[in-house]
Amino acid sequence: MSLVVATIKRDLLLAGRNPGEWLNPLMFFLMVVAMFPLAVDPDPDFLARIAGGVIWVGALLATLLSLDALYKADVEDGTLEQWLASGESLYLLALAKALVHWLCSGLPLTLMAPVLGLMMALPDDAYLAMLLSLAVGTPILSLLGAVGAALTAGVRSGGLLLSLLILPMYVPVLIFAASAVYHAGLGMAYNGQIGFLGAMLALSVCLTPFASAAALKLNLSR
Q1: Which of 49, 96, 104 lies closest to 74, judged by CA?
Q2: What's the rounded Cα separation, in Å, for the pair 104 and 220?
Q3: Does the global pTM surpass 0.70?
Q4: Are 15 and 100 spatial neighbours (Cβ–Cβ below 8 Å)?
Q5: How confident is the model at residue 1 (pLDDT cuts 50, 70, 90)?
Q6: For range 129-155, the mean pLDDT
Q7: Cα 60 to Cα 56, 63, 125, 161, 190, distances in angstroms
Q8: Exposed, middle or buried, 188 (CB in 10 Å: 0-12/13-18/19+)?
Q9: Is 169 a residue whose pLDDT tops 70?
Q10: Are 21 and 15 in contact (CB under 8 A)?
Q11: Where is the major localization of this protein (predicted)?
Q12: What distance in Å separates the CA atoms of residue 73 and residue 50, rounded to the nearest whole number?
């Protein structure tokens, strides 16, 4: 566990020294949502109906931007080979990498979302649902994305392949999360959608690190 904690600290320190790695997805998220009203009808009633979907699509695409580099540097400098040689669990490494990615990507997106909700005329009743859906849904995006990043870690310019692999798995998260925000804006119950997201998060925490570890072993054995 000490090696896992050291890896988390190192990755967070590197993210602090290279703010562009986590600021670029954040600015992309801001620009997508901010420009959307300019491209369609700026009527507040119309924007209120689609606000949850727009915010979630922006968050999903912004998350994809930062996934390509998740393991690439560790593959290139031999860190992953050293980790495997040390006998430490690749499961814990994959879980730690997903945690760092969420802290640098998903958490900032969640904190910025209320400001973008104001820009999109999001109904007052929908803010809690939006924050809950992002708080539960963005870790799922990071965990699923870590699997794709592990599969494409040894591939040059694997960003497009990564997107093709991961986007289909992101669709259920997008559907349930956007539905929760939409129903909350109408004054309807959204506990079911949040519950489904919670179940998906529990499954992702249990299963995706195993898939990521297997993909990393496959890349290292080439």
Answers
A1: 96
A2: 26
A3: yes
A4: yes
A5: low
A6: 90
A7: 6, 5, 23, 16, 20
A8: exposed
A9: yes
A10: yes
A11: membrane
A12: 38
What is the spatial distance between Cα 126 and Cα 113, in angstroms, rounded to a whole number? 12
The domain total for the chain is: 1
- Residue corresponding to tokens 């669709």: 171
Residue 157's pLDDT band (cuts 50, 70, 90) = low
Range of the domain at 134: 2-220
Burial label, 136 (beta-carbon count in 10 A; 0-12, 13-18, 19+): buried
SS3 string, the chain, reads CHHHHHHHHHHHHHHHHCCHHHHHHHHHHHHHHHHHHHHCCCCHHHHHHHHHHHHHHHHHHHHHHCCCCCCHHHHHCCHHHHHHHHCCCHHHHHHHHHHHHHHHHHHHHHHHHHHHHHHCCCCHHHHHHHHHHHHHHHHHHHHHHHHHHHHCCCCCCCHHHHHHHHHHHHHHHHHHHHHHHHHHHCCCCCHHHHHHHHHHHHHHHHHHHHHHHHHHHHHHCC
Asked if the model's pLDDT at residue 194 lies above 90, the reply is yes
Q: What is the pLDDT of residue 221?
A: 66
Q: Give CA–CA dist 189/47, Å, rounded.
A: 21
Cβ atoms of residues 166 and 144 within 8 Å? yes
Q: How far apart are CA 111 and CA 129, in angstroms?
A: 13
